[in-house]
Design a protein that fits this description.
The strands form three sheets. This protein has a ten-stranded mixed β-sheet with strand order 5-4-3-6-7-8-9-17-19-18, with helices on both faces. It contains eleven helices and 19 strands. The radius of gyration is 22 Å and the shape is globular. It is 26% helix and 33% strand. The structure holds S-adenosylmethionine. The site of S-adenosylmethionine has 29 residues, from strand 2, strand 3, helix 6 and strand 4.
């Protein structure tokens, strides 16, 4: 069924309610972005769902691959709002979006105004065809829709004041840097050691300086810039480790490690159950080169095979034949948990103690809101010209994560 022709007044009232919710939860803050959210008819861009669903704060699936994995969506409004706040579009800006759906391009067109321009690009012809049709239907035919692999940007209309990527990237493509104007901004959901953060970078001479970051989730990049996670099965499909392509982690020596005696060490560090551990996870990733993400099925937790900090898994470290991971137990009050570490294998006591020492170090200096900053240099940059911090080398980039 095609719902795009739903009663505009009804759709408008649902849109106002969604906008109010996004303001309440802090995702929408700036006046012009609020106005754009009140104006752009999201239901036109997701004609496959009824208007009540179009104006729910949720992602809408548009296309899956043969395995059922999502490959194209119209993004969740709260994530769109947070990224637009990071992007800080001004009237007159020239904008390139990589990953089309129509909706975000229409919002950006409202923000860039008639003196600015928006080009949206997608690798999938079905998506560009739909984006072109729905943008025209919603009154945004001035948005340019291009079918191309975003790895190479869109040189025809460069330079851009903003390049905004709406698909998970494992790297920063050289074309994005080259096609930014001298003071241009790049907003990109970058996957780093199992977590995806939308990082807003400012172009700063020969490198990019991170200005803000928020956790988010997107479908994976296809094409020349595709970057796949390595999935290492530790126990059937119930306990798996996930690592980035550049991490030389070998799990062969870990065969049967979960059945070996366990060392448990508690840190005395208490966290609110509802707090995110994302900065702690990144801190551990910066301090343990063989950091990976442990994903577990509920049945593996129930059977006592693993006891991770979060019921779906979390931070883990591999050292030769030893596996350690972040764990938690109930704290002195219902809303609190105490963090600790569990480890199995020949050096389990040392690894559990090291993990706990790093949890304490993080809590002392960074546990209360101060996160790291990100800087991206071309891969060829000499090491002595990089800022102090943890350096992650990808195909094109030297990313530095610096803790203040
Ligand atoms: C989350 S959707 C984009 C959502 C959209 N910005 C919106 O308005 O809601 C991600 C899109 O990225 C596209 N994509 C994946 N890899 C790409 C690539 N290398 N170049 C361009 N587009 C790509 C997918 O086809 C998919 O349509």
């Amino acid at each position: 069924m095609d719902w795009s022709g739903s009663d505009p007044r009804y759709a408008g009232s649902l849109r106002s309610a969604l906008t109010a919710r996004l303001i309440d939860q802090g995702a929408l803050r700036s006046g012009p972005i609020v106005a754009a959210f009140r104006t752009v008819p999201r239901h036109v861009f997701v004609p496959n769902v009824p208007p009540e669903v179009a104006y729910t704060d949720d992602v809408v699936l548009m296309k899956s691959d043969p395995t059922g994995a999502a490959i194209s969506t119209v993004s969740q409004p709260a994530v769109v709002a947070m990224m637009l706040e990071q992007a800080a579009i001004e009237p007159g800006d020239r904008v390139l979006e990589i990953g089309s759906g129509g909706y975000n391009a229409a919002l950006m067109s409202e923000l860039a105004g008639l003196d600015g321009s928006v080009t949206t690009l997608d690798i999938d012809p079905e998506v560009t065809e739909r984006a072109r049709r729905t943008l025209t239907e919603a009154g945004y035919s001035r948005v340019r829709v291009v079918r191309a692999d975003g790895e190479f940007g869109c040189p025809e209309s460069a330079p851009y004041d903003l390049i905004l990527i709406t698909v998970t990237a494992g790297d920063i493509a050289p074309a994005w840097f080259d096609q930014l104007s001298a003071a241009g901004r790049l907003v990109v959901p970058l996957r780093l050691r199992g977590q995806t953060r939308s990082i807003a970078f400012d172009k700063n001479g020969d490198h990019l300086t991170g200005r803000s970051d928020v956790l988010c989730g997107f479908v994976s990049m296809q094409g020349a810039g595709a970057n796949y996670e390595r999935v290492l099965r530790l126990y059937e499909d119930k306990v798996v480790l996930r690592a980035d392509e550049d991490q030389p982690i070998d799990i062969e020596p870990l065969e049967g490690v979960l059945l070996k005696p366990q060392t448990v060490e508690w840190s005395g560090i208490l966290l609110d159950r509802n707090e995110t551990f994302s900065n702690l996870d990144l801190w551990l990733a910066c301090n343990f080169p063989e950091y990976c993400v442990l994903s577990v099925k509920r049945s593996a937790v129930k059977s006592g095979l693993v006891g991770p900090a979060l019921r779906w898994g979390g931070s883990a470290v591999v050292e030769d034949e030893t596996l350690g991971y972040l764990s938690s137990r109930p704290g002195p009050a219902k809303h609190l948990v105490e963090l600790g570490a569990r480890a199995h294998g020949p050096t389990a006591p040392a690894l559990a103690a090291n993990l706990v020492a790093q949890v304490r170090a993080w809590d002392k200096d960074y546990g209360h809101g101060r996160g790291p900053t990100f800087t991206a240099h071309p891969r060829s940059t000499p090491a002595d010209e990089l800022p102090i911090g943890t350096h992650i080398t990808t195909r094109h980039t030297q990313l530095t994560i610096s803790w203040p």
